[in-house]
Amino acid sequence: MKKTQKNLTKRLEQRSAKVAVLGLGYVGLPLAAVFAKSGFEVIGVDTDKSKVEAVNRGESYIEDVTSEEVARLVSEGKLKATTDFSILSEMDAVSICVPTPLRKTGDPDLSYILSVAEDLARYLHPGMVIVLESTTYPGTSRELVLPTLTETTGLQAGEDFFLAFSPERVDPGREDWTTINTPKVIGGITSNCSEVASFWYDLALENIVTVTSAEVAEMTKMLENTFRMVNIGLVNEVAIMCDRLGVDVWEVIEAAATKPFGFMKFTPGPGLGGHCIPIDPLFLSWKLKSLNYTARFIELASEINTNMPRYVVDKVQDALNEFSKSLNGSRVLVLGAAYKPDIDDVRESPALDVIGLLRQKKAQVSYHDPYIPHIEQDEWDLESVSDVLEAVGEADCVVIITNHSEYDYAAILKKAKLIIDTRNAFGEIARGNSKVVRL
Ligand SMILES: NC(=O)c1ccc[n+]([C@@H]2O[C@H](COP(=O)([O-])OP(=O)(O)OC[C@H]3O[C@@H](n4cnc5c(N)ncnc54)[C@H](O)[C@@H]3O)[C@@H](O)[C@H]2O)c1
User: Residues with Cβ within 6 A of ligand 1?
Assistant: First the structure.
């Protein structure tokens, strides 16, 4: 082992190595806290001043990290935050957790990764380990990050510094599998890079899975999220087919799920949501297009999932029609705006599309979500209604988009005139009840 690698490994082991996490969002703040708890001195770097100030005040703005924990780590001197990138010159180990959205045109927006790579290049020094965690297409670490780091510095990956990719698998709101105990896949640009990055992460996380290259690690994330997206697309189409056949899709799924092998349960819904599943597979299909290959499963699943909000709005329209009402002018209450139950994240939520489409058809739309008090979009903005049961009683139709566990479904069922349940939130209590239309 060369001296640079040996020294870095020693500093990491002794926790004298300084750690920076770039991007203190849903992924970065929990990761920074995990490194700090394992004994490292951690600096979070973010361009968002309000997040930096909140961390330094000892406050968390992410559900998965408590303010008490942030306050304790800050007071112990283990965690602080800054907007000043020059601090990178003092860092030994850096994780990159910046956003990777899609552009409106459907192309990956890698400008955040590129921007931090340029910042890092300015301060790159021998004996540094860098791990990219932002979700992206296979090849990004080697084709984009590596040349940005080496072009101006002349330093060599695997010898002078160490670069790896490690996909983030956090499932916000989940308590059994968290940043610390979810197995972490790591693949480096060279075998030395894999070794150093795995060594570092192994000091803070419970289970490291080292793979042979950055590309394998990048593609692992793509496979995981494509698997979910395609299976959700399949089960959404099964719901549409069952509707045509007059068969209860929920009963079919429960029956299929009794098979002890060879079947994995997925449930239909109003469409995909969140920062990952709707977006990540499109990174892969975009990359494959550049290689003259069409990722057909991804495109088909994406088409089916993207059409689900429209399918739900059609259901609302048809159900109102049964009561001789038009959607135009009807009061429609959407329950749940977050993309999944019991969290406060509205990114890519199908609720946004459903509300938008209902408004286009001139329904009087209101919503309630215990976690999301306000929604602001380009075309509209709404405040969550304050009294959910009163709003249920006043609505011509209630649409369940997110089955938050705190809702009193029995009381909602009693008060509502008509319910479109896209999540089977009412389950058995609504069986045979003609005012409940399930997906
Ligand atoms: N949220 C999830 O559940 C999840 C799960 C798996 C993977 N990911 C991936 O992890 C990455 C981060 O996602 P997230 O949910 O934490 O995003 P986020 O938007 O919550 O956080 C990103 C943070 O990066 C900051 N930032 C932007 N540009 C910066 C820059 N140049 N330098 C430093 N900070 C900068 C932003 O201010 C923000 O605080 C994305 O690639 C995402 O796809 C997210």
Answer: 22-28, 45-48, 51, 97-100, 112, 115-116, 133-135, 168, 170, 172, 275-276
